[in-house]
């Protein structure tokens, strides 16, 4: 289902933000809706989860693909990663 408005994050309730994908990331469509709330429990728990499972200091943010409505993790390596790509 195509999404035209930024949906609320199911993890924290904040509105997601429109983000432009990096060129190097192959994706069907160049726009994502991403929760950039630094207090989002999904993002906060991600650091520990990634460390416990992969021993890497990264986390992920909730993202929505507006083309088909699928959701999943967007890997980020810091709090500010990807924030320069926010469009709205
Ligand atoms: Zn959130």
Question: Can you tell me about this structure?
Answer:
- By secondary structure, this protein is of the alpha+beta class.
- It has one domain.
- The chain contains one helix and four strands; from the N terminus they run ββαββ.
- It has a four-stranded antiparallel sheet with strand order 1-2-3-4.
- The longest helix has 14 residues, at 41-54.
- The structure holds zinc ion (ZN).
- The site of zinc ion has 9 residues, from loops.
Largest beta-sheet details: 4 strands, antiparallel
> How many beta-strand runs?
4
Give helix % range. 10-25%
Write down the oligomeric state. Answer: single chain
- Low-pLDDT regions: none
Total helical segments: 1
Return Rg in Å.
Answer: 13 Å
Strand order of the largest sheet: 1-2-3-4
Mean of pLDDT:
91
Query: Structurally, how many domains make up the residues?
Result: 1
Judged by helices, strands and strand pairing, the structural class is alpha+beta
Shape: globular
What is the straight-line distance between the termini?
Answer: 21 Å
Order of helices and strands: EEHEE
Strand content: 15-25%
Summary of the model, kept short:
The protein has one helix at 41-54, and strands at 17-20, 31-34, 59-64, 71-76.
Notable characteristics:
alpha+beta, four-stranded antiparallel sheet, 1 helix, 4 strands, globular, binds zinc ion
């Amino acid at each position: 289902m195509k999404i035209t408005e930024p949906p609320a994050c199911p993890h924290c309730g904040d509105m997601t933000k429109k983000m432009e994908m990096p060129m190097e990331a192959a994706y069907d469509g160049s726009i994502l809706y991403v929760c950039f709330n630094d207090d989002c429990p999904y993002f906060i728990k991600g650091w520990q989860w990634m460390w416990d499972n992969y021993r890497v200091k990264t986390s992920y943010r909730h993202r929505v693909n507006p083309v088909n409505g699928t959701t999943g993790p967007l890997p980020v390596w810091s709090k500010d990663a990807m924030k320069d790509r926010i469009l709205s």
